[in-house]
Amino acid sequence: MPKIVMLGTGLIGRFYTMAIHGQRSRDRVQVVYSRTAERAQAFAAEFDIPVWTTDLADAIAHPDANAVVIGLPNHRHEEAVQRCAAAGKAVFCTKPLARTAAEAKRMLDLVERAGIFHGYLEDLVYTPKAQKALHAVQNGALGKVLWTRSRETHPGPHSDWFWDKAQSGGGAIIDLGCHCIEIGRNFIGKQIRPLEVMCWAATQVHPIEAEDSAIGLVRYADGAISQFEVSWAFRGGMDLRDEVSGSEGTIWLNHFLRTGFEMFSAAGMGGYVAEKSETERGWLFPVGDELTELGYVPMFSEMFDALDQGTPPMETFYDGYIVNAIMDAAYRSAASKRWEPVEIEEWRGALETDQGQVQREYDAQHWLVKEETMPDGSVKLILKEKTTGRIVQQIRSLT
Amino acid sequence: MPKIVMLGTGLIGRFYTMAIHGQRSRDRVQVVYSRTAERAQAFAAEFDIPVWTTDLADAIAHPDANAVVIGLPNHRHEEAVQRCAAAGKAVFCTKPLARTAAEAKRMLDLVERAGIFHGYLEDLVYTPKAQKALHAVQNGALGKVLWTRSRETHPGPHSDWFWDKAQSGGGAIIDLGCHCIEIGRNFIGKQIRPLEVMCWAATQVHPIEAEDSAIGLVRYADGAISQFEVSWAFRGGMDLRDEVSGSEGTIWLNHFLRTGFEMFSAAGMGGYVAEKSETERGWLFPVGDELTELGYVPMFSEMFDALDQGTPPMETFYDGYIVNAIMDAAYRSAASKRWEPVEIEEWRGALETDQGQVQREYDAQHWLVKEETMPDGSVKLILKEKTTGRIVQQIRSLT
Amino acid sequence: MPKIVMLGTGLIGRFYTMAIHGQRSRDRVQVVYSRTAERAQAFAAEFDIPVWTTDLADAIAHPDANAVVIGLPNHRHEEAVQRCAAAGKAVFCTKPLARTAAEAKRMLDLVERAGIFHGYLEDLVYTPKAQKALHAVQNGALGKVLWTRSRETHPGPHSDWFWDKAQSGGGAIIDLGCHCIEIGRNFIGKQIRPLEVMCWAATQVHPIEAEDSAIGLVRYADGAISQFEVSWAFRGGMDLRDEVSGSEGTIWLNHFLRTGFEMFSAAGMGGYVAEKSETERGWLFPVGDELTELGYVPMFSEMFDALDQGTPPMETFYDGYIVNAIMDAAYRSAASKRWEPVEIEEWRGALETDQGQVQREYDAQHWLVKEETMPDGSVKLILKEKTTGRIVQQIRSLT
Amino acid sequence: MPKIVMLGTGLIGRFYTMAIHGQRSRDRVQVVYSRTAERAQAFAAEFDIPVWTTDLADAIAHPDANAVVIGLPNHRHEEAVQRCAAAGKAVFCTKPLARTAAEAKRMLDLVERAGIFHGYLEDLVYTPKAQKALHAVQNGALGKVLWTRSRETHPGPHSDWFWDKAQSGGGAIIDLGCHCIEIGRNFIGKQIRPLEVMCWAATQVHPIEAEDSAIGLVRYADGAISQFEVSWAFRGGMDLRDEVSGSEGTIWLNHFLRTGFEMFSAAGMGGYVAEKSETERGWLFPVGDELTELGYVPMFSEMFDALDQGTPPMETFYDGYIVNAIMDAAYRSAASKRWEPVEIEEWRGALETDQGQVQREYDAQHWLVKEETMPDGSVKLILKEKTTGRIVQQIRSLT
After folding, report:
1. How far apart are CA D47 and CA D59, in angstroms?
2. Residue B305: its chain A contacts at CB < 8 A?
3. Do the chains contact at D266 and C253, CB–CB below 8 Å?
4. SS3 per-residue string spanning chain C
5. What's the N-to-C CA distance of chain D in angstroms?
6. Is A292 within 8 Å of B128 when comparing Cβ atoms?
7. Are strands C90-94 and C194-202 parallel, antiparallel or unpaired?
8. What is the rounded CA–CA span in Å between residue D6 and residue D8?
9. In this predicted model, what pLDDT tens digit does every residue of B184-233 receive, in sequence order?
10. Distance (Å, rounded) from C-alpha B207 to C-alpha C247?
């Protein structure tokens, strides 16, 4: 049973703590760390946490806790992981795992050498919709996955440090692309190797050095393509959508702006509407329970169950490392203006993958290309002759 | 901390147990009762419940448990409540509380005389969307609530007993209307007295005696109107929507069919899609996590917290009694074809209520009736002269 | 080929003229009438209309025109129809046809005795969505229609006269209910007799004498129920939705607020967004082409084709009369608080109608009540024994 | 006034003729050409066209017609344009204009040298939604356009020739990308030069040589990015969506699958549901009036008005040429795996374009980076110090 140290008291530390302490949970944060005593103390009081400290080492080593949740700025992840490895404690790290694949690889090596439990807190693959969709895809409801699109765009991050490239490691790609990339990877299949990346990135709006907008394509070994779209310049709230297209079907998920909750208010809601909401009057689109809809509650549930059972969780530091490797390739591509290979030191997935097209036979002589009902009610068939390769069409009347 | 007896192993007992045992929960079902040993044993095995029995009295009196969840057919609620009262155990009863207001009142009296904790398991006011919407309404985001509409329609209930009026007490009104009525009551305000009901009910499709379709209007003391629409003859899945209209705003909730999860599958999902789904291929609309979206998880969370703290929960047997009183009036109205008064033996809410219109002053001489931007960009004002009552219009150009 | 007199230069006269003159149309308004010379002249100039006048008799009798479109306030319809009958000209009258069924019947008698072409300008049954949906329903896509719901609510009408009961004949029912009632009648079938009406009406918000909110149920001879919901107190724009439920299917139409056009603007659109839109910033929901989406263009197309071909149009004064008869019953019911019969002087539809339930046979011994896939993948059947009437259930495993 | 020759009797010729002859139109097709007499004759009979022929030259030269609509396979466009130029007749060509930019340029030169009216039949920029959205963007409702996404995907084209690269010139890019590219160009502004293209293309599903899936990015001189997504392998119908993101707002258009028309049918619609629909039962999403919703009616209206008035239409052969130039670059990029320049022989738009970021000043010392309401109701500001470039944050409490 985890007794938790929470590192960081920003928005993510708050969301994590609320999720962990949530509905009738048996889990508790025992120790909280913040850079300033004032914030640490206030946070401990608010969430009824017995111990607070401004000393990172003390927090991690505290004897009342056996698991550490890292909710710190990106440039402080590696140091925290080092100390967890040294202390032999289970570690859960927020996204992105690191600023670069090299940094991520060092962190992976640390936890694997220390033999400690490690979870990568990629919450958006744990949303109830994503989980059910993954289950359907794994059951074959979509046939072979051909294309995924994951989009996360909003008007920009909450914290000042994230706007500073030195601390964060980048802009919208590092902040949001990590989500989108891992969502695509889950739908396509983690055993399929990501081969190369093409990425456009630009600073379109904000007076910053990092990119505030980017679009990337990740090509996988089985021919699937995975698209990510990220921006800190979107207007209208937080656009959080996933789309998957397969040979047999399609999935569209909307996690935030169109979830069946629509509200018009001339009076205003008097404050907070939803994360990254831009307006308090007019048409508003709140979500029911953000902690569940954004995946925090199911994520910690799965992670802590895994810890209790001594099995690896769905998302580990290895996954975080792969995401960083893909983001590295994205940054290289944005600079070189060509496809760049994904450089993975130690690939643990499938080594060979079938790239083949999905052929449907119509009869002994023909492949079926397409079948459609026409406005006059007849059915038109597009067929390919197996021997000649010629495309022919046939009309079948409805009777 | 509740140690729970679960009465009933049908779909509702299953959903309740899954919700109670769910994500990292500290709560457990200790005893399960079913009419048949086979089902009781299988259920206990599936959900890791230490004790099973086919004896209702034994189940309720079991020394390892201090709280009883009633998931039995409607005609067996009263007997179970009697035993809980006798045993002095906290009791949580599924919806509807009873078949009639008289039965509900007897059950209310039993628990109040025994002084036991009592919760009415009206899950749909606990959905994350309903809770957030209620919060917004209570904060004034919609001004005065004028109209609510709650709709629950699907192709009919799962269990055979529900199709038999003697056991269930009625048809779609008893099964689904109880949800809709209590949702409307929450939005309008529980302190506002429901005065009278007009209801149409018919058996349109199914070969049964009870109504399979009904529409009702409940008029409240403050002038608000609350509409319920229920059917066992809807095609397309389960239509579960709430709408609220106020003097300052509007809320639309869709709990099931349009929640931001859309899927096309030519291959099919291979089995269960969602409660009351009708198709396994083509366009499908699953929900992310039914136990949360239907309110089961947040409901037990609030109820058990209340039990732990010794406070009444949001929904008590008194609420269930009021709902039964409104349903009684609905059945009377369907027969008499006129508005029928809601007969409440002991009204605990407000005794006087302001019915007044919501006036907006335009200037010293006029009330503002309406303001609108026209196609040519000008703004048209409809005003009412305070002294004469005459309606006049003014055009204001945009500049 | 119609040469048109347009009576009235308000918003409806404007929409009508724009629709008639629209995309490559061969039809033209030749004469326009308004109460004031200033408005008549400006309108004629704007729409390139050769003749304008402030004399109603002159306008109708003008030799350059053979067809009259009435876009006047409700209390002036009858007079205009009288003159058209006298002049022997085709007449098209805006909705509602009249303020009462008696007035409507006089107008119907006038046009029938004069033998002139008469069209009832109920645009909302002509929207492209309504037309396609009607076609699907008539083809049997929904089986037997059981329930319709038509909702039109917005913050109130544009023109001052409509807020004055003497001129308009009533409030939201007369203004909006006429649309909803005729939409429901089309879906259920015009040959089916409307038997009785139950209606709630109230003045909830505005400082006026007429009702600003109403909900009504119309019961038809075949057992179908048709629901109308109207309000001048809705916030958020214009809510214009139709829903139809049948024994085999469901239709949901949204004509205005959720049509696949969604826009967030922090800058604002600089003026008109859409009819009855309330906001110019934030999330906005414009419609593509209002004249088409609201049915004006297809309506005049069908009406003028009928005139050219000498056949009656889809909507005649008889339809307008039936709508007024239903509205009369609604007003009576709102006062009497009971169901009121629809009084029709001369019923031209079916005299006998099958009310029967829709039975589906399962096997020689059983009726099928319901079939559903359960969470464990099995299929549960609810059956009714033909001889005993007993309800039984069967479980069928998926294999 | 156009008297029209229709070249081609396939689905597009049918849609064009229906649109031209539609609602009270004054325009008529006078001559129809098809390769086979049987089809020409049947088409002429169906649409009441006086003259039919199987001779292309005769059709174009026919003395009863002054305008030619080209609805032929792609490889026959140039020949038809040559004949129109020779005959001095107005010409309207379906999309794509040509198979390559070189072919398009020759066609452009032909019509310009001949001085004939030329229209490029890009219907999807004429949809009512696209037109209103363009108007809003041009009015500044979105600020500076930063990103556009246009997606057209379906299970593949109707006609056999389109599956043959020699006749069509390519696959999904040539068929669908031409739409998406021109939609993006309209939103960003036609005066802004498209600079370079990055494109991924693959044959993922069908047994053909051309690409059945592609994703491309077009970078414009003002820094905007325009994304196209096309596929012949989408399942679920026709996905036709446009999205635009600007510094001040967002637009989402759905033209086909989610337009406010939702239908469940267990019985089926008995034939045609909508273009590229895959199912006839279950949940269906028809569109109201395809000819309007897909832009055909408004397109011919604008084009013929322009012809009557002697002005160029919104979309000319020059636009078709630019689209072909962008598609050429896309094909080159798919092969070279890098960004490829858009090669335009004669650029007629702006030569210099501001690329600048959109700065918002907070006060004399700071730029405003971002402002957001937090869960506790406070407002967090992210600011950039003008002199140091340092990012700082400030919290402002709500009071």
Report:
1. 17
2. 24
3. no
4. CCEEEEECCCHHHHHHHHHHHCCCECCEEEEEECCCHHHHHHHHHHHCCCEEECCHHHHHHCCCCCEEEECCCHHHHHHHHHHHHHHCCEEEEECCCCCCHHHHHHHHHHHHHHCCCEEEECHHHCCHHHHHHHHHHHCCCCCCEEEEEEEEECCCCCCHHHHCHHHHCCCHHHHHHHHHHHHHHHHHCCCCCEEEEEEEEECCCCCCCCCCEEEEEEEECCCCEEEEEEECCCCCCCEEEEEEEECCEEEEEECCCCCCEEEEECCCCCCCCCCCCCCCCEEECCCCCHHHHCCHHHHHHHHHHHHHHCCCCCCCHHHHHHHHHHHHHHHHHHHHCECEECCCCCCCCCCCCCCCCCCEEEECCEEEEEEEECCCCCEEEEEEECCCCCEEEEEECCC
5. 66
6. yes
7. unpaired
8. 6
9. 999 999 999 999 999 999 999 988 889 999 999 999 999 999 999 999 99
10. 13
How far apart are the two ends of chain C, measured CA to CA in Å?
Answer: 66
Q: Is the ipTM of this complex over 0.95?
A: no
Give the pLDDT confidence of B14-60 residue by residue, as tens digits. Answer: 999 999 999 899 999 999 999 999 999 999 999 999 999 999 999 99
Question: Do the beta carbons of residue D174 and residue D180 sit within 8 Å?
Answer: no
C11: left (phi over 0), alpha (psi -120 to 50) or beta: alpha
D298 touches chain C (CB under 8 A): yes
Which residues in chain C have their CB less than 8 angstroms from residue B377's CB?
A: 270-272
Residue A40, CA distances (Å) to A37, A89, B325, C140 in order = 5, 22, 52, 67
First and final CA of chain B: distance in angstroms? 66
Euclidean distance between CA atoms B237 and D283, whole angstroms:
10
Cα separation values, D206 from A130, A137, D159, D332, Å: 28, 21, 15, 22
DSSP letter (8 states) at residue B193: P
Question: Does an H or E element contain A379, and which?
Answer: strand A379-385
What percent of chain A is predicted at pLDDT more than 90? Answer: 78
Q: Distance between CA atoms of B220 and B193, rounded to whole angstroms? A: 6
Encoded tokens for B371: 């303001």
Burial (CB < 10 A; 0-12, 13-18, 19+), residue B381, is middle
The model's pLDDT over A74-128, given as tens digits with 9 standing for 90+, comes to 999 999 999 999 999 999 999 999 999 999 999 999 999 999 999 999 999 999 9
Ramachandran angles phi, psi of C92, nearest 5°: -120, 120
Predicted local confidence at residue D280, as pLDDT: 77
With residue B253 as reference, give the H or E element that holds it: strand B249-254
- Whether D40 contacts D34, CB under 8 Å: yes
Q: What are the b/e assignments for D94-114, b being 16+ CB within 10 Å?
A: bbbbbbbbebbbebbebbeeb
Give the residue-averaged pLDDT of C153-182.
Answer: 92
Q: How far apart are CA B210 and CA B166, in angstroms?
A: 10
CA distance C134 to D180: 33
Interface test with chain B among D205, D239, D283, D284, by most B beta carbons within 10 Å: D283
Q: What is the pTM of this model?
A: 0.94
Mean of the pLDDT values across residues D6-24? Answer: 96
Both tokens of residue D373?
């309401």
Tell me how far apart the terminal alpha carbons of chain A are, to the nearest angstrom. 66
Q: Do A136 and B263 touch (CB under 8 A)?
A: yes
pLDDT in tens, B119-166: 999 999 999 999 999 999 999 999 999 999 999 999 988 888 888 888
> What pLDDT was estimated at residue A355?
73
- Are residues D285 and B282, on separate chains, in Cβ contact within 8 Å? no
Q: Does C194 touch chain D (CB under 8 A)?
A: no
A225 to chain D, closest Cα gap in Å: 9
d(CA B329, CA B344): 10
